[in-house]
Amino acid sequence: MAGGDYCLEAVRRINSRGGCAPHLSLRFDSHHFSIDTSRAPKACVQPDAYLITHAHSDHYGKSAMLSPQAIASVQTARALEIRYEREYKGRTFEVGQSIVVDGVKVETHTTGHTIGSTAFSWQTETGERVLVTGDVKDYSHLPKCDFLVTEANYGDPYDPSCIFEDDLAGFSEALESGASFGAYAFGKAQRAVALMRAMGYKDEIGMDEKSLVLTRELMKDAAGPLTEVKDGVSNVVTPWNLHQVRGWNKYFLTGRRDSSYPTIQLSDHLDFRGLMKMIEQVSPQEILVYHPKGERASLLAHHLQECGLETTSLDLIEKFVR
What we know:
Blueprint: E1 2-3, E2 6-13, E3 24-28, E4 31-35, E5 49-51, H1 61-64, E6 70-73, H2 74-84, E7 91-93, E8 98-101, E9 104-110, E10 118-123, E11 129-132, E12 147-151, H3 168-176, E13 180-182, H4 188-198, E14 205-207, H5 209-219, E15 226-228, E16 234-237, E17 250-253, E18 263-264, H6 272-282, E19 286-290, H7 296-306, E20 310-313, E21 319-321
Parallel strand pairs: 2-21, 4-5, 5-6, 6-7, 11-12, 12-19, 13-16, 13-17, 14-15, 14-16, 17-18, 19-20
Antiparallel strand pairs: 1-2, 2-3, 3-4, 8-9, 9-10, 10-11
C-alpha cells in the first residue's frame, strides 16, 4: 500500500514456529501499530500499540491484553478480563474519544458489532487517512478514508449464505411464544437481551453463568432484571447449554445451518451487501481485507479488484518481521 510521497506498509510477524502470527501490523512514518494480533515475544520487533477492536477470541485480545501497549475500549477491556480471568494491562478509552498513541492522534468509532467494539482512524504525516474497522454491524459512524483495513466475514459474493437479513419478526414471534434462545455469551447474548427489552419484554431473563456476568457488567441497568436459568421465563444461554433449559420452545440465534435446534437468523456482522455499502460510504483509494481464516478475504479482494478498487488480502502480504 504505497504511492506518491507516502507509504503505508502492511506487515506480518513470523512466530517462533516459523509460521505467521495472527492478522497484521501497519507501519507508517516512524510508527508500528499491530491490528488484532497476538502479543510479540520480547525478542521480536515490538509495536507501538496493539489495537484491539473487540473481545472475540479470533481477534486475539487474550494475548494482546497482557501488554502495556494494548489499546481497547473500556468495555472491550472489561469483557476480556471476564472472559479470560486475567487483568488487562493496557490503555482504555470510551468509544468516540480520541487518544494519542506514540504521538499519533487516533480517533475511535463504534461499529455496533459487540458492546465496546471499535474502529480506529488516524492520519499519516502526509495527510493520508487510515481506517481500521475490525468486525462491523453498523457502519454509519465510520469516517471516509484513503486506506481501509476491514473484515471479510461474509465477503464471499458467490456464497448465498453471505446475503441475509436479520429475522427480527421471527425473533419477536418466538419471544411472544415464551421461547428460550441459544446465543454466544459475549456479543450475541447481549444483543438478544437488548432486542428483548426493545420489544417490550419486562420480565426476568434467565442466563447461564458467563452470559449473566458479561451482560450485567456490560449493559448495566439497560439489561433489566436478570436471573440464573429458570423455568417460566425466557432464557438466553450459550448454545451448548440450551439442552439444560426445560421445554421444547428453543431457538439458536445464528445464521448457521448445522444446528440441531431451529434457528433464527440474527447476525452481529454486515452481510456481503452491507460490506459493499460500507466500502462505498468510506470511499477508500486502497483496501486490505483480513479475517477470517479460509478463502473469504481473498474472494472479497478479488471481487473488489473486479470493481476497480485497489485491494489486497491478508494472504498476499509480502513483508514479514520477526
